[in-house]
Amino acid sequence: QEKKIFMVQGPYPIIRHLLRARGWVERKLPSVGRQLEQHHPLHYLWPPTEEEEEKEEEQCDEDPNGIHDLMSYLVRDRLPNFIWTNFLEATDHELLQQDHMVNHYARVDAFTTKEGLCLSLQNLPWIEQADPNTFFPRCYRLGTRDEREAFIEDFRLTAARSLLKLALEEAGDRPVRTKQVLNSAKGAGWHRSHVSHPKHSTAQAGSPLYPELVEEALEVCKQHLGVLRHQDIDRGTPSPCRTCIDWDRFLQEYYRVAHEGAGLVLTRQQRKQCQNLLQRLAEQLPQLGMEGKLNVWILKPGAESQGRGIICMTRLEEVLQLARGFTAPSVQVGRWVVQKYVERLLTIFGTKFDIRQWFVVTDWKPLTVWFYQDCYLRFCSWPFSLCHLERARHLCNVSVQKWYKTSPDLDPRVPPDKIWSNKQFQEYLAQLGQADAWHEVLVPGMKAAILNALRSAQDQVGFRKGSFELYGADFLVGEDCQPWLLEINSCPTMRPSSAVTRRLCANVQRDTLRLVLDRKNNPTCSIGAFELIYKE
């Protein structure tokens, strides 16, 4: 009569404990191996594995008198009023018509898959006055011809900008050559063909490449700047990547400079041109600062999670070859996305980390979003390095790092369990003299990124009154403390991997039930660390 029957599917002993403490009765799932009745409106629920059942029972409160089992038996034929599950079949229309609360919405893959988020944020400027390039590293779906071509152009332009950065960096380490010296070098027998075809050159990897390479990069970047400033509308300026430059040769020479130690020679005039051009490009390109100079990109299966299949790469031909000819066991051909790697990121004790940030959507019409004020950091097991692209250095997912032993080169101040709370991070920022960065830069940036992602996908989501959903957003932090959204997870893990996550995961589950259940009957009740950040 009180409509307090619940069902839990998946490893959520905390939810079960908290609901029982509120006087709710569990309608238990059929045991493993028992056939689910196909006509039942809950047939979409997968039975838990024996391992999941054992873990739940170990962590759940004891039932010495068997009262919970007895009550569960009495409601075995009743539909639950509240369902917490780790899986929802979006096509289960019968379920969605029932009058009960479910912890998922349908069709959220529009922003909870890498492919979906990439596509949705491309449409953001048409929906909101917001630029995804200010918070989401640029991303392309390689299975789509137009986007694959756009990625190729982006890779080439990034290589040209990176070459200018490398040239300036090297010019700062030694005297800049004059035109007279360079002309003498040419008179002594140097010719453009010596660097036009490096595989035929007798020069070693560390030998200098002369100014024509920098001149080509300058010309490409000048043309790109004109396009960015819309000068191409009246003048018909072609795409910078459709100029007469031999891009295959240019990229091979860029690889020699960026990855093989070849040097560059600049004239004083070129040095000034590089500085001026990069400064003007920075005014047009929000990601110029974070993109670095090694042109690292990260290739991801479009609909996978937990770091499956993710690879860091630096060569265009290898990215395209991998995306065309290789498919991970569960990845459909062509369902890859490639995203610019954040090269200039903030590290802690020389180690890469990311932030897992929770939020809850309790309504899509009107869109209503609650931000959780506690979160946690996840560290890699090996020291950060852009010269080495192993997963242990670059993927912070707990599900990835658990397979790696801690490197002996890792700073001993990195926590052994590779987890920090946001409070510990704030203390670290204060030690860096950035005490205000958390509340003034990071939190506002994460909130804005989350809201923009939700608004970009709002029309795609299967809206349903009575549902809610807890999400986990992953962010990297740039050198300037700006957060960069990587992805949003529709089923963030609640399995603790450390003392910090044991406490925080329990808290966010407790506060989510306060928000979606207790608040319905008592609007002034405590909702813990949740904060309403948006209601349409």
TrEMBL record:
Catalytic activity: L-glutamyl-[protein] + glycine + ATP = glycyl-L-glutamyl-[protein] + ADP + phosphate + H(+)
Keywords, ordered alphabetically: ATP-binding, Cell projection, Cilium, Cytoplasm, Cytoskeleton, Flagellum, Ligase, Nucleotide-binding
Region feature (Disordered): 187-206
Subcellular location: Cytoplasm, Cytoskeleton, Flagellum axoneme
Gene name per UniProt: Ttll3_1
InterPro entries documented for this protein: TTL/TTLL_fam, TTLL_monoglycylase
One term of GO molecular function: ATP binding
UniProt protein name: TTLL3 monoglycylase
Principal subcellular localisation of the protein: cytoplasm
Positions with biased composition (Basic residues): 189-200
Gene Ontology biological process terms, A to Z: cilium assembly; cilium movement
Cellular component terms per the entry's GO annotation: axoneme; microtubule cytoskeleton
